[in-house]
Amino acid sequence: MNTSHLMRRVAAVAAAAVLPVSLGVLAPQAFAEDTDGPFGPGCAAVPAEGEGSLDGMADDPVATAAANNPELSTLVTAVKKAGLVDTLNNAQGITVFAPTNDAFAKIPKADLDKALADKATLTKILTYHVVGERVDKAALADGSFETLQGGTVTTDGSGDSFEVNDTAKIVCGDVPTSNATVHIIDTVLMPK
Question: CA angle 66-113-185, nearest 5°?
Answer without folding.
Answer: 35
